[in-house]
Structures are given as structure tokens and as C-alpha cells.
Description:
Blueprint: H1 2-13, E1 20-39, E2 52-64, E3 66-75, E4 79-89, E5 94-102, H2 107-112, E6 140-151, E7 157-166, E8 169-171, E9 174-176, E10 190-199, E11 207-218, E12 230-245, E13 249-264, E14 272-283, E15 288-298, E16 313-326, E17 329-340, E18 343-356
Amino acid sequence: MRVSRLVMILSLLASPLAQAERLQGEFLLFSSAEAAGTFDRTAPVTSIQDEVLKADMLFSLQRGPLKLFGEYLVTDHEADLERFQLGWQMSENTLVWLGRFHQPGSVWNHEHHHGQYLQTSITRPAIEEWEDLGGVLPQHFSGVLVESSRPLLSTWRLRTALGTGVAPVITPRGLEPYDLVHPNPPHGELGFQARAALYSSEFSESGAGLLLAYNDLNAVGWPANATPNIDRVDMTLYGLFGTYVDVNWKIAASVYYAQANLHTATPGVDHSFVVGYVQVERRLRHELTAFARLEDSSGAAESRYLKLIPTFARARYVTGLRWDFAHYQALTLQATDNLALNGHFKDIRIQWSSALL
């Protein structure tokens, strides 16, 4: 399967590998174009962005135990150095990174990153969304990341990732991570994330594991008369995930339990919330793939933290069809029923995506 091969190549770009004695380099380019529209709309604000163009560039250089990895994303509304990591390979199985990275507590973003072609659906689950697109969880950190893949129980592999770094801040516009290209004074506090999972073999996509994160999010840019008047948010996150992949089927599921405590001038009750999703994909004839995703939550409507980002979808029902019509090119049609915190709307999207090796 084309996407599976690309996922393997991408994992080789930024994972523990045998040391390269000579200078080795890799480059990948993902591009996409998308159009979207809404109907049956009662929500005053949605997360829809019409006619989005994207070009995602990934590069990797390695010589001996040293490795440099980066990801630069250009769209019609932003240009950002999403990841920039200097790595030291401690052993064949362990790699230590210093720089800006995607937090390891999101399995979806760990697998797909910003490469649109890599994911079958056009949209990612709401709980996995990027900060600048209405995401409610921190996704980008600047600090230290340790990744490891070790043999366990014959052919099984234990993959772990531990990260700590400067967390995003929360502003009236949403979460904002530290920007390496246009660095502002880093107002963020430290955050910690961890992932541990068992997989059936070295390059298997089938596995299951645990997620854990703690983030201290400083409030920046809020007016003095804001309601609520936020000082910071303490967020603790626990998660479970599992993925099953065979020749014709892929099933991916995650569930998160979050406790977000708002430190405000006016005391209030902080509610925990649970968010989960399951996506099922079925390969058909003629390079077609049908997919469906169910996203749901509990306690989201009562969370004072989630009300700060009202476009968050507390429930979603996604269906679609993807056609891989040429060499690393695909057309995808997707329909979604969104139950946001501020109302309800349906949308339909069409997207072209590609990958250039």
C-alpha cells in the first residue's frame, strides 16, 4: 500500500536507526489543495477554512551519531518551521533530540504530522488538531525528546517517547507554541509528555499503548476585563490508544481523560472531560478506500477550559472515500456532521493530495 510505504519512510527519517558513517540525506514534499463548504449551520463560528493550499517539506541529514531533522509548512495563511531537531544517537535503539518537536502524547500526529497525503481522512480528529486551527491540546514543544524502540518478547517491540520543553501559551486566539522563526520572549512554562506502546514487529503499524502528559499553560494577552480573567491553566492528560492494520482494514482508536484547572481571579468549578474517537478504513477495488470516524466526548460542554475555544467539536461523524489515482496522488471526498460547543453544522470537503519522494 502506497501510504504504508510512505509511513515507513517517514519513520526512518526521524527514528532511531543504525549509525550512518557517511553523510546521508532524505527529502519529502507533501502538497495538497482543498475546498470546503458548510450547510445546516447554526454555529456562529466554525473551524472551516475554504480553499486551503499546503506544501509540507521534510528533510533529514545524518552522519555518524548526529542527525538533523526538520519540517517546514507553507499554506495560504501561514509559513512555519513546524519541527527542527538536532539528534544524537545514543545507541542503535535510542535517539535524543534537541529542538522543536511534535509532542509524543498524540499518536495521530506522530504518525501523520503535517503530511496530508499520509492520512486517509481530510480532517484529523478535533482532539488532535493543531493549535492554530482551534486545537485544545498543546502539540508543539521546544526542548528535549527521547525516542526508543527496543525488542521485547521475541519479535515484539516496545516503543517509547519522553519529551519535555517549553509549552504553548493560551491567548484569546487559542494556543500559541513558541516560534523558532519569529521568536518572541518565551512566556511558556515546561510541559512533560510520555508514550509507551507494544507493536508486533519493528515496522508494524498494529499496536497499543498508553499516553501521559502534564502542561502548565500561561495566559498571555488577555484583557484585564476578560471573563474569565485567566492567569494560567494546569492540564493533566491520560490516554489509551490502539491500531490494527492488515491488507484491507485499518482501525485506529484513542481515548483521552483530561483535567484542566483554570487559575482565575474568580473561583469556579473545573470539570474533567473525556474525548475519544475510532476511525475505520476499508480498502476497495480500483485503489479506493472508504473510511468513517466517530468522535464523541463526555463533560466537554461543562469544561471551563474548552469554552475558551468554542469551535471545538464535542462530537463528529465523518464519512468519506479516497481514490489513489496516480503515483502518490489521491483525491478524497469527505462529509462531516459537527456538534461544536457553540452550535451545529455540516460540511463537505474535496481534496487533492500528493507526495514527492
